[in-house]
Design goal:
Length: about 600
């Protein structure tokens, strides 16, 4: 029985050479895991290599679920691509792979019923292997190759290997989709911040509300937007700002809304209402003569301190059937701004400072969450890729390859654990939940303890030059953690020779950790002690130096960086003499 005649057995029966090629491909892919586009390019090239194909390509399905939105390929020179013209859109055999959602192998693709031939100047193609790229039941695209080397057809082994690479492609496509959504959301949030910035300089209430209405139409892609403010009796609108209708249409309609129907339901309920068709809501009262038909609807209350003073509503989402949750969040933010403008017109300058402060806090929180998610996602992708390769290649990997993949996963798990522990410790320090025990601490024994908890790696020498009499007022645990973090930082980024030194003067004691490496790049120095700041080649989490700063400042110390006298990096921790601290023994 030949390899081609054998029943499909998955990667467990793939050839050793094929498995080695797959492991090399997965390793190369994980190196660019922060760039989904590069990952997909690596996958296409890897598919051509492991299958021995002349051409390979990857198509990503667009919003309609059938035609291709993106197409990557390899094997054709630029001149051939230019002569062909338009790239495939997902019809013919490629469409069959997408629609059927299963692998397709053909010795001659022209014999398949779905074959539609080739455009002029297209190179001849015979043997074909296409596999769908899936995420659960959803088909995200396909990975296909043609013209197996030697004129043979593609094999079961080829199909198993390409199916494994399609799994990697699924991860990359989903990552790319998330990145696109994040970029779109970031753009909209930036636009929202710009609107808020403009509003802080606008002191005329009617002009400011018009800015909000215009921004809502822009940010949420609504055809019509209106903002009504309740009058003194709270039974109708005293003012109504809108956009989307030309003056002639407004004149034909006549009286503007006064706050009835679904708009009243928004204000009475005090919560947002999203509808695919406004006419289906029980409170709908229809439209006056000459009024344009409106279907999709999003209304949010304009409220200040729990008191509803109006509503902001949007209708007819452009290009879509209904408004989204993100649209609602943006509209709610704009409605909140409108409430501030209406209720604080006489004190707008004070409110501007408050809005700026809140916006800064929101941006800082968003940036922090983004950093944490990004830093955790990177090791998770590596771990997943390693474990998948181990599982799928159980019988085809040698001991060295298995060890390499296992060690890769363990290293990433250690990175995640370090990050979580550092984040928890930072949170505990900054919140003041961790008790602070201040006492007179001799630095010599503390340095020795730090070296025990963070011993130097093989080939690294640590020289100790501490003064045994140097004593400071500090929390012994925190000082030990500061020294061990600085040592670990020096091990990772410094040279093979490290010096720990203490010097004392009338103002205090300086504990220095000095290495003979390349030093810190000038571009990193201003933000060196901020969270998640690290060099391009760093293997750390970017939290160690931030933790050193937080620990030192917790008991009145400080930390600074400067280049070492003979090259390398020098970190100085400044601490207080016991007689200068003037603090109690225990502070909680």
């Amino acid at each position: 029985m030949t390899e081609r005649d054998q029943p499909p057995g998955g990667l467990a029966e793939a050839s050793v050479a094929g498995m080695r090629a797959l492991v090399d491909a997965v390793t190369a892919i994980t190196r660019v895991q922060d760039d989904p586009e590069q990952m997909l390019e690596q996958i296409v090239e890897a598919a051509r290599t492991v299958s021995g194909a002349e051409y390979a390509a990857l198509g990503i399905v667009g919003p309609d679920g059938r035609t291709l939105d993106a197409f990557l390929h390899t094997g054709m020179d630029p001149a051939t691509v230019e002569r062909i013209g338009n790239l495939p859109t997902g019809h013919g055999i490629l469409g069959a792979v997408i629609v059927e959602g299963r692998a397709l192998r053909l010795p001659d693709l022209s014999l398949h019923p779905a074959s539609q031939g080739f455009p002029p100047n297209h190179p001849p193609m015979r043997s074909f292997l296409g596999v769908p790229i899936r995420s659960g039941e959803e088909v995200l695209g396909h990975l296909y190759m043609t013209n197996k080397e030697g004129g043979a057809g593609f094999t079961d082994t080829d199909e198993a290997l390409i199916t494994a690479l399609a799994g990697q492609a699924s991860i990359a496509i989903e990552m790319s989709s998330r990145y696109d959504k994040e970029r779109e959301l970031t753009h909209r949030l930036q636009r929202l911040v710009e609107v808020n910035t403009v509003l802080t300089t606008e002191r005329r209430v009617d002009h400011a509300l018009q800015q909000i209405v215009n921004a809502a139409a822009d940010l949420v892609d609504a055809t019509y937007v209106g903002l009504g403010v309740l009058g003194e009796g709270r039974d109708s609108f005293s003012s109504f700002i809108h956009t989307g209708m030309d003056p002639g249409l407004v004149e034909a309609i006549g009286d503007l809304p006064v706050g009835r129907g679904v708009m009243r339901a928004v204000m009475v309920g005090g919560r947002a209402i999203r509808l695919k068709d406004i006419g289906e809501h029980p409170a709908s009262v229809g439209f006056p003569a000459d009024h344009p038909v409106m279907r999709s609807f999003l209304g949010v209350p304009v409220a200040h301190r729990g008191r509803v003073i109006g509503d902001l509503y949007l209708t007819d989402k452009r290009g879509e059937q209904e408004f989204t949750e993100i649209d609602e969040l943006i509209a709610t933010a704009l409605a909140s701004q409108a409430a501030v403008i209406v209720t604080n017109a006489d004190a707008y300058e004070r409110e501007r400072a408050l809005v700026a402060e809140l916006r800064s806090a929101d941006e800082a929180k968003e940036a922090f969450v983004h950093h944490v998610a990004h830093e955790l996602k990177t090791p998770l992708v590596t771990i997943r890729g390693s474990l998948q390769a181990l599982e799928m290649g159980r019988k085809g990997l040698n001991d060295a390859q298995r060890t390499q993949l296992e060690q890769m996963a363990v290293r990433q798990l250690d990175t995640m654990m370090d990050m979580v522990n550092n984040l928890l410790e930072l949170a505990s320090i900054e919140s003041g939940r961790s008790p602070l025990v201040l006492e007179a601490v001799a630095l010599g024994p503390v340095v020795d303890a730090a070296l025990t908890s963070a011993p130097p790696p093989e080939g690294t020498v640590v020289d100790l030059d501490p003064c045994a009499d140097d004593r400071v007022t500090a929390d012994r645990r925190y000082v030990e953690r500061i020294v061990s973090n600085l040592l670990t930082n020096a091990y990772r980024h410094g040279g093979p020779h490290i010096t720990v030194r203490t010097t004392s003067d009338d103002d205090g004691v300086t504990l220095s950790v000095i290495d003979n490496g390349d030093g810190v790049p000038a571009s990193l120095v201003p933000t060196l002690f901020e969270r998640f700041v690290r060099g391009r080649e760093s293997r750390g989490t970017g939290l160690g130096l931030g933790l050193v700063k937080a620990l030192a400042e917790r008991f009145g110390g400080s930390v600074s960086y400067r280049p070492a006298d003979h090259g390398g990096a020098r970190f100085d921790v400044r601490l207080q003499h016991p007689d200068a601290a003037g603090t109690p023994d225990v502070v909680v």
